[in-house]
Structure formats: structure tokens, C-alpha cells
Amino acid sequence: MLDSAQNHIDDLADFVAASPTSYHAADQLAARLKQAGFEQVDPRRPFGEPGGRRFLIRDGAVVAWVAPETLTEEAGFRIVGTHTDSPSFKVKPGDLPRSAGWTQLGVEVYGGPLINSWLDRDLGVAGRIVTRDGASHLVRTGAIARIPQLAIHLDRTANDALKLDRQTSTQPILAIDLRQPLIEHLCGLAGIDAADVAFHDLTLFDTQLPAVIGVEGEFFASGRLDNLLSTHAALTAFESLEVGGDVAIFAAFDHEEVGSDTTTGAGGPLLQDVLERLAAGYGLDLDGTRAMFARSSCVSADCGHVVHPNYPGHHDPMNKPLPNRGPLLKINANQRYATDAVGAAIWLRACDAAGVPTQPFVSNNAVPCGSTIGPITATRLGITTVDVGAGLLSMHSARELCGVDDPWFLARAMGAYWIG
Question: Any idea of its EC number (predicted)?
């Protein structure tokens, strides 16, 4: 694990910059895990003996584990779950739209971004191109697109009530006369022939690099902190994790921002499949596997909200979490977060063991909160789950903000949880 908050934030900046999409994030996770000595397994083949340090990658998701050779009667799974995707705009297939002489890019809103934060930013296109042989090729451009805002001179009410149509207001400009088809440009970057392309999964991303800001250098501004911050924190804790008595699991899912009900989302079978295959490797039958689930726990790590100084009334009047005061313990009576008293105790023990602070988070009753993979994992597996995460300002903006200490605090608490 990185030895200081500053080293951690520098590494996080590099990780975010290298991960414009979930597919790039999964590729980065795989490269880092291999470098740390983890063996990649093929999910299409039997896992065999369960012990060791291994991982699998599926599209934009990664599941890794550190497992003992044999289990004690009290062993369980210790799971940290995160997600690799972030709100954005997905590129539509087909011909590029044209309007009033401009060549544009057809896009569809992905998840729930703060759409206005994407206006007038230098945007790139990134993702994967799949060729007809089924191979995936990662690609990313520099700044080639922009969603332009209408000038104030042409809309004097813009500062009063800006309303953006999700179709007509969000299509970025690419060029006046595009001399080379965009797909040919992307294929050139990926080193493939455009004639071999079957389909693509491409999204827009903000090309501005992450940065430490503030008079005291106490803030970190970046795109995609939700939820690459948690994914990176888990990675740094997991890279050096030694084998213990329990089976340590790191699950970085995709598609959380659109509901998780996909093959690589938390609502799909990916994690359950890995857990059951590992249990079978230990010789456990159905009864033994379910008993192991009952001895297990999960930390669902996703970002939360610090109090907004311009809108404190949108927060609970008695709950005002701040940056650099530790990750949040997220609580909701209606189970939008999975935290209960048992899960909270697990998290507090981990923070105490790591020597890091933590803060409770509850919502204003009149402002319903979002949700996470936590309730989905708890429902699907029946495993005790606690929701936590670093606090942000401007969540789902093209550029979010956190404290420089909180990602490191989160990583240390995760490491202590896995060690037990």
C-alpha cells in the first residue's frame, strides 16, 4: 500500500488519466494485478485448486482473490465491491449527424451526469472496438469534440434557468468538413482495419487531467472519481495483500450507473459465480457454501456527499461531513444503502485497526439519496454488507472534487478489513 496520502493521490491521478472508460480501467487493474504477482484465469475453464492470488477480467469488470490453500471451519469471504463506470455519453452507431454545416457526433446519455458540466469542455472519445473475429481493441483519442453552449447574447435567460434537451442540446461538434470518417481515425489509432470492425462501445470523456488544487493543496479535482477513486483504493490495498484465513475478494463491477443488471454488473451472476466456484474448489457442497456465505461480509465502496457550502439546506441539518475527515459510513432507513448495525461494526473495527477517521452520512429526508451495489449484492447473495465511500462535491459532474487525504484513508481501511 502507498505510504502517504500524497503518493496515493499521485497514483490515483495516473490511474484516472489512464482509465477514460470502464474497459480501460479493467485493463489497468489487470496490468497492476499481474505486476503484483496475480495470475489471470480464464473463466471459460475450471479454476482448479482455489488457493493463491488470482483474478479474472470480463469486459469492463474484474474480480480478484487472495485465497488460502485450505479453509478453517470459521473461514468466510471478505469482499470489497466497487464499480468501474462513470456517467458520460455513449456514442451511437450509424452515420454522423450534420446540422447547419457542422459535422457532429451522435451520443446518448449514459447514467445520470450533470449534463451542464459537460458543456464547453475538451472531450475525447474512448472505449473498445470489436472486430469480426471477436477481438476487442482499446482506443482513445485526444480532445476532438465539444458540446458548445449557446452564447448568452442568444439566450438572455440562460443564467436564470438553463434547460438542456437530452437529444438536441448534447450532440458534440467534431468538424466542419470531416475529411476522414471517425471510425477510420479510431481504427488507425487502434492499429486495425476499418473493414474488420463489427461494432464498438465508445464514450466521451473529459480530457482535462486530474489536479491537486486549493490554497493549502487539500483538494483533488478530477473526472470519474465516482467510482475510480474507490476502485483504485481497493487496488492499492489488494496488490500487497498476503494470504490469510479468509478468502479476500476484490470485485470491480461495470454498469453501476445504469442499474447493474448486466452480465458484468453487480446484479448479474459474476460475483456469485466466482464465490461458488471457489467454494467448490474447497470441496464444499451447497450447504457448506451457504454456510460460508453466512460467515462472510462485503464492503460496498462508492462515493458519497460532503456538505455543500452553497446549499447546506439540501443536507441533513445535523449531518455535515467534510473533506479530509475520513470516508463516509453511508446509512439509509429505506435500504438505499445496505448498512445496518452489524455491518457498521465491521467498518468501524476496520477503521480503528487502520487508524483512520470515518464519518456517518445520512440524507435530508426531503432529498432522497441514490443507491449503490451494496443493496444489490446483499439481496443477491444474502451476505452482510456495509456501504462506505469517500465524500465528494459535484458528484456526477464532468469534474468532481474530494479531499486529498480521503482516498488514502479509504485504502488503509480496506486493507485492515481484508486482513481482519
Answer: 3.4.11.-
CA–CA distance, 390 with 411 (Å, rounded to integer): 10
Q: What is the DSSP letter of 96?
A: P
CA atoms within 13 A on the CB side of 181: 10
Helices 286-294 and 270-281 meet at what angle, rounded to 10? 120
What separation in angstroms does the CA of 93 have from each of 87, 96, 128, 198, 362? 19, 8, 13, 11, 41
The beta strand positions in 45-196, using DSSP E, are 52-58, 61-67, 77-83, 88-91, 98-99, 102-104, 107-110, 123-131, 136-140, 173-175
Pick from 339, 349, 418, 346: nearest CA to 371: 339
What pLDDT is recorded for position 179?
86
CA atoms within 13 A on the CB side of 297: 21
Fold classified for 88-206: Aminopeptidase i, Domain 2 (2.30.250)
Q: What pLDDT, in 10s, does the model give residues 331-346?
A: 999 999 999 999 999 9
**In the chain, which residues fall in CATH 3.40.630.10?**
5-86+223-419
Q: At what angle do helices 270-281 and 373-381 cross, to 10 degrees?
A: 40
pLDDT at 368: 86
- Of 211, 225, 215, 409, whose CA–CA distance to 329 is shortest? 409
* Residue 272 predicted with pLDDT over 90: yes
* R_g of the chain computed on alpha carbons: 22
Q: How many other CB atoms are there within 10 angstroms of residue 224's CB atom?
A: 27
pLDDT tens figures, 224-260: 999 999 999 999 999 999 999 999 999 999 999 999 9
Tell how far CA 235 is from the center of its chain: 12
| Third-level CATH fold of 5-86+223-419 | Aminopeptidase (3.40.630)
Amino acid at 17: A
| Single pTM value for the model | 0.96
